[in-house]
Amino acid sequence: MKNYDIIIIGAGASGLLAGICAARNGSDVLILEKLSKPGKKITVTGNGKCNIFSDREDVENIVNGRDKEAAARIFKSIPFDILVRFFESIGIFVLEKGGYYYPVSLQASTVRDNLVTVAASSGCSIICDCDVTDVKETNGCFVVNKEYSCKKLIMSAGGMARPDLGTDGSSFKLLKSLGVDHTELYPALCGLITDFKHLKVIDGVRHYADISLMVDGYEAFKEHGEIIFNKKGISGIPVMNCSGIAARALRRKLDVSIRIAVLTQRDREIMLKSIWERLVEGGYTIEELLTGIANRKLVYAMMLHMKVDPELRPGVDDGFRIAGHIIDTLCCLTLHVTGTMGFENAQVTNGGVRLDEVNNNTFEHKRVKNLYITGECLDADFVCGGNNLTFAWITGLRAGTYAAGGIIDSDICN
Questions:
Q1: Same domain, 357 and 321
Q2: Contact at 8 Å (CB) between 400 and 392?
Q3: Which domain holds residue 231?
Q4: What pTM was estimated for this model as a whole?
């Protein structure tokens, strides 16, 4: 049996950073990865560009986990500029673009490659194609797959989002075998399924809108941004950001819907004035009257939804009533939500090991000594914008450093 100071299960964002920090603090480190290559999930973040950081100050407003205050404290525990300097010290330089932070290469693969290279050069051993199925604590040591042993174990194998990238929930089974429970798990940062009958017509349509998530008639979430219609439902950043809330509500059998305001009340007044003037002129079809108020396919779907013939040439009063009805619907289109796009399409997991069960400075479990838990294994998830990666970096950095007996101070960047 091969012995190590620290074994890290999972070579993702938090696992690789934990390995680098632990090795740099003098520990003999082994990182075990289920897939054939480490850091595969990193390469798909930010649509392949890797939205690497967030410097949001209003962290409490972007947390979807249950203990928002604890998650926010952790998120802010390492200042943004210090985190950036640390990444620069390992060769990853950052570019700000539209309020988001990316590697200057705009390639997520370069972040992964750099982390793997630095981990190896720092002294970490990385073994891929290693599916960890058995972990036991024996005589103050952890035995992994009956093949490796260590004094300290760091669980960084992620949650259940994107099982094709290795995060299939196996981390929670291993933690359970060590006596560590977790909260209920839901897909988050994913699309929502709706029962709207004309989705095929608007498949692929993108439109900026105000969206509100309604749960049993109450507004549970509101945001403005680009929404995307597809054959099953809707996606886009605002929808993804509320998907965890929707998933929890659906599990509780509550009524869930999305209200979409493609048009504002100001738009409505201007458009109705123009439509009235053209109706007085005469000769326009309903479709011609509404051309230009929003995406053509979306307007056509609203006509189908209301059973309005697009070729109808109405009189002034009927035309104004019909056009007004369609515009009003675009000001507040309500879609009933029947489900989520699932873990296979989710970016993160909502749920995990409760934050009050780990030391929020070192991430050592309070009951299972020498067991550290990082990243998506923890019950803290955030809205889009590099926030979840930032949380992974911070927890991995802290767990790796403290597991190796180091401290986090001004020398972190050296």
A1: no
A2: no
A3: 191-341
A4: 0.92
